[in-house]
Amino acid sequence: MEIFGVLASIVLLVGLIVWLKIHPFLAFLATSIFAGIILNIPLQDIPQAIETGIGSTLSGLVIVICVGAMFGKLVSESGAAQKIAQVLIGAFGPKRITWALMLTGFIVGIPLFYNVGFVLLVPLVFSVVYQSKLPAVYLGIPLLAALSVTHGFLPPHPSPTAMVPMFNAELSTTLIYGLIVAIPTMILAGPVFANALKNIKSTPLATFTPKDLPDNQLPSATNAFATALLPVVLIAGLSFLPSQAATGSQLHNLFTFLANPSLIMLAALAVATYTLGIRQNVKIQTLMERYADAIKDISIIMLIVAGAGALKQVFVLSGVSSDIGALMQNLAINPLLLGWFIATVIRICLGSATVAGLTAAGIMAPVLPLTGADPNLMILAIGAGSLMCSHVNDSGFWMFKEYFNLSVKDTLKSWTLMETIVGIGGITAVLILDVFV
């Protein structure tokens, strides 16, 4: 059966990345060639399949992901994230400080990519630790749980955004469903779970003591909140416009133009360039240098997305979807649960949430029409699986351990368990939502 070719390809991908330490992009390309051969695709068609997969995957993503990276960089460098944290912590007070940190991670994490958000916001947590004398892990987990759910569930983050065209889903619908799934999940994995971590002792390294911008250099609270949330508000709000006019009419065409996610991200960046840049007396040259740095930060992720698209196209061309579809029918398992499980297994093996999510999507995308599952919910189910069980093969595991100066045991008890709660809570919320949509 061709299903064994898929399994062999996954084993090869894991081996190349984990044991041979090959870069994921090169590992995806090598695996795509191997999969094409073992799945009996004519040799002359394999290069075209790889090129088509890369092109079709990136074509609708480059603007959203790259402009999103620029937007997040500006939120970071301008001090908007710092201002948001100050306002929320002041509003919630010391008794509900974990909730304030969770909301900080959620709001700031929407435009910021995960690693950038981690490096930016963890020092803010340590600032609160030194002021409040509360345990560092107790304060840090709610914020990082919020960062995690935005990374796994919400566009414009790379994995959920990349899966939208793979499943022929709607970016705005995925975002709205993602918000519904993310909120209860981060509450459970954040403030609720953090109460069990008060006894974990942690002395953050002095290296990571924050160097905050002075208050007179920060944007106003209104500016910071409005700008940081602008992409989400526009994508969710404008998604309903095309349905308000007759198909084919000039008004419908205008609304479709205005609701396009790429256009929305460009408009949001233009607004942010003024509100968090020019209005704060930052020179255009400096802003463009920051944007160039943001592209450098995201280039590796774009390559991984491209590689995953190549492997997906090889699976599609091979016709393996028929075998997988028949197997799923015999298993009598909810396809959303199967997508979550596949992503979980790959996540445990590889460590990378992005690679796990996109690989699972490449397997599930060809058979999705046979299952009748909602494509937007499949994206979220796979996203939940891609966050499961972070352990020693995940860079996030070691970043958390070193920043918080913890033992491996305490990192497993806090970070790993938090990520597992996010994964289980996420798929539970997806399955509940599936009943109503």
TrEMBL record:
It is found in: Cell membrane. Pfam families: GntP_permease. It is a multi-pass membrane protein. One of its GO terms (molecular function) is gluconate transmembrane transporter activity. GO terms for cellular component: plasma membrane. InterPro entries: Glcn_transporter. The chain crosses the membrane at residues 6-39, 51-71, 97-129, 136-154, 174-197, 218-242, 254-277, 298-317, 337-365, 415-436. Keywords: Cell membrane, Membrane, Transmembrane, Transmembrane helix, Transport. Belongs to the GntP permease family. This is Gluconate transporter.
